[in-house]
Amino acid sequence: MSLGVIAGQTLFDQYLQFVHDIYVVNLFTAAAAMWLLYDTVLTFPREVSHVWRANWTFSKVLYIILRYICVITMIFYVSVGPSTGFPSSVTAFLGQSIRGDAMLGLRVRALYHGNKNVIVLVTLEYFVTFVTDIVAAVKLANSVHPIPGISDTLPGCTYGTFEANILYLIWIPGLTLSFLALSTLIRTSSLDNRTPFPRLAPLSYLLARDGVMYYCMYLVVSVSSMVIMLVFPGRELAAISEVLAPPVYAIGGCRLYLNLRDADEVMNLGTSKSGDIELKQQSGLVFAHTSSSALANSHSLSTL
């Protein structure tokens, strides 16, 4: 963690404020880590069934990367990052480069039946978001400097000289990407299915419902962080978004994967173990079962 420079305060006042902010951020870090750990344990039986016992697919690889890189990131935040001399650039890179929007993008591709224009648009937006995340992470890491005379005794004590506006480089493209994927997903779902959604078009309903939940989770974290940065400029409290982002990406993105495969299993489509549901073309993606009551008579699906 770094000590920000706040105008109009003595060095001692800044130090007390810094200690208090670090305490608050550490509380959020511990809570976020426990939230991610709880979800990982809670969904592990479903993960064994839908991930580890399934064939290797692009979605499976994406799920494993998203889930466990975020777990590693939270381990860094809880233990390695604030207490040792571990390079801050590594934790910054992990925290800002792993996103769950790719899971949402795959669903957009499925609903548009592999339309090339849609694929290019979503891929381009995701690439721009990924690059801006990396640029922002590098800028943040390069702006952190050891405190002279202290860092040798207390590793991890640093001060930051970065401008808080850099964080907008992370939030705005990310919100744009998520909103683009969500809006196209909902629009296509509503046009293709004018029947009672959950019963007659269960897969399409899940695509829209889980997409909305993921976007809302990401929106809450991003907007809250922007408000904190505006209300408390130059404070370490802005780091709250950094520790909340990995659990949101992992939990929201992985639930997108698991819930869709739960529905596939309930309707006995038989595609979740052998291939990518998200990458199926129109002939392979079934949005409604031949019996409208097939899903209603089965066990209820897990929600986010």
TrEMBL record:
**Segments traversing the membrane:** 22-41, 61-80, 166-186, 212-232, 238-258
- Which keywords has UniProt assigned to this entry? Membrane, Transmembrane, Transmembrane helix
Annotated InterPro entries: DUF6533 (IPR045340)
The reply on keyword Glycoprotein is no
Q: Name one Pfam family in it.
A: DUF6533
The DUF6533 domain extends over 28-69
Q: What is this protein called?
A: DUF6533 domain-containing protein
The organism of origin for this protein: Neolentinus lepideus HHB14362 ss-1
